[in-house]
UniProtKB/TrEMBL annotation:
It holds the Pfam family Creatinase_N. Residues 148-350 form the Peptidase M24 domain. It comes from the Bacteria. Signal peptide: none annotated. Its EC number is 3.4.-.-. PANTHER family: AMINOPEPTIDASE, CYTOPLASMIC PEPTIDASE PEPQ-RELATED. Keywords: Aminopeptidase, Hydrolase, Protease. This is Aminopeptidase P family protein. It is an enzyme of class 3 (hydrolase). InterPro entries: Creatin/AminoP/Spt16_N, Creatinase/aminopeptidase-like, Creatinase_N, Pept_M24, Peptidase_M24B. Residues 8-140 form the Creatinase N-terminal domain.
Length: 370
């Protein structure tokens, strides 16, 4: 894996050099992990003018503290002395000593005070904005990353499948969410990818609903959204069911509508497709049925080391899909006072010759009565 991380740092170095910055300072933890294999608390990564100048600066020595990931064993590390100050400020001085006349930094992650302290280093290199260069590198995943997402999806499918086999009536949203998160860990996840959402009755179909003490009742819509974190890679799955009885006509109609929208979104996941066209493919079906105002604000988003990363599949998003980009497709409709439907899958964009979009989350999308 050391070669993988070294290659990622080379790509970032080349990108920075092309814009006139021979070095970069990465402070956002997910980006540090992407380039270094791990992200110790408080650590920053200096990508120097040459590979030999790359160094991870950390405020405390390796010890018992938890580290997200497993650090590149060939990457040089430097531990600041006790009371040695901010690793980012120390990295600026290192870049100066390495001969960098400009240093690209993640302004979107830095506080104003930290940026000022970095700029105040004696003879500091000129600070430029790295912008979201690392986030852009992270969009297209290699097969090892996709493999981790595939396992995360399998774990989420297992946890959800087991829940569907249990008795649900009378249990609270909060209890079901906690049980799902326990099952994720039982099946090998490092934890939940995000707070698990369980929504019943009038709460169902809400995006990001926080579970309450409302109990599951006969005839309810039950919408569930969960994801597993496996080796730092996070997937997402969402399904909607009916509890204990034959679905009402309005429930069947609404479910079939959202299912059609989700299918349209999935089928539009082809390399070269505009982000906003994927959103439009799903949204126009909901809009034609008169549910434009009740639809979720975006159709999907990228997943990886974070559960919500680029690309954003929204009405105003700019850009085009590449192959090997994992995204969610998650349209939904919530009707105030009645409830709603949300269907959510994680897929990987693939060339048509490779079979088209690869579906990672495979729990049935049939409207089941549980």
């Amino acid at each position: 894996m050391s070669e993988v991380y070294a290659d990622r740092r080379v790509r970032l170095r080349d990108r920075c050099a092309a814009t006139g910055s021979p070095a970069a300072l990465v402070s956002r933890p997910a980006n540090v992990r992407y380039l270094a294999g791990g992200s110790p608390p408080g650590a920053v990564l200096l990508v120097g003018p040459e590979p030999e100048a790359d160094v991870l600066l950390r405020p405390v020595p390796p010890g018992g503290e938890p580290v997200d990931g497993r650090l590149d064993e060939l990457l040089r590390q430097q531990v600041l002395p006790t009371g040695g100050g901010d690793p980012a400020v120390a990295a600026v001085d290192l870049a100066r000593r390495a001969g960098a006349d400009a240093l690209a930094v993640e302004e979107h992650h830095l506080t104003v005070a930290r940026h000022r302290a970095m700029g105040a280093v004696a003879s500091a290199p000129r600070l430029t904005d790295l912008d979201c260069a690392v986030e852009q590198l992270r969009i297209v995943k290699d097969e090892d990353e996709i493999g981790c997402l595939r396992i995360a999806a399998e774990i989420a499918d297992q946890a959800l499948g087991e829940l569907l086999e249990s008795i649900l009536v009378g249990r609270t949203e909060r209890h079901l969410a906690l049980e799902l998160e326990r099952r994720l860990v039982d099946h090998g996840a490092d934890g939940a990818a995000f707070p698990t959402s369980v929504a019943t009755g009038p709460h169902s179909g809400r995006r990001g609903h926080r579970p309450t003490d409302r109990r599951v009742e006969e005839g309810d819509f039950l919408s569930v959204c969960l994801g597993a974190d496996y080796r730092g890679y996070r997937c997402e799955i969402g399904r909607t069911f009916v509890i204990g009885t034959t679905p009402a006509d309005w429930q069947i109609e609404l479910y079939e509508l959202v299912f059609a929208a989700q299918r349209a979104g999935r089928e539009s996941l082809v390399p070269g497709a505009e982000y906003r066209d994927v959103d439009r493919a799903a949204r126009r079906i909901l809009k034609a049925a008169g549910h434009a105002e009740a639809a979720v604000p975006l159709t999907g988003h990228g997943v990886g080391l974070e559960i919500d990363e680029d690309p954003q599949l929204s009405p105003s998003a700019m850009g085009k899909l590449d192959a090997c980009v994992p995204v969610t497709v998650e349209p939904g409709v919530h009707l105030p006072g009645r409830g709603g439907v949300r269907i959510d899958d994680t897929l990987v964009v693939r060339q048509e010759a490779d079979g088209g979009p690869e579906l990672l989350t495979i729990t049935t999308k049939e409207l089941l009565a549980l």
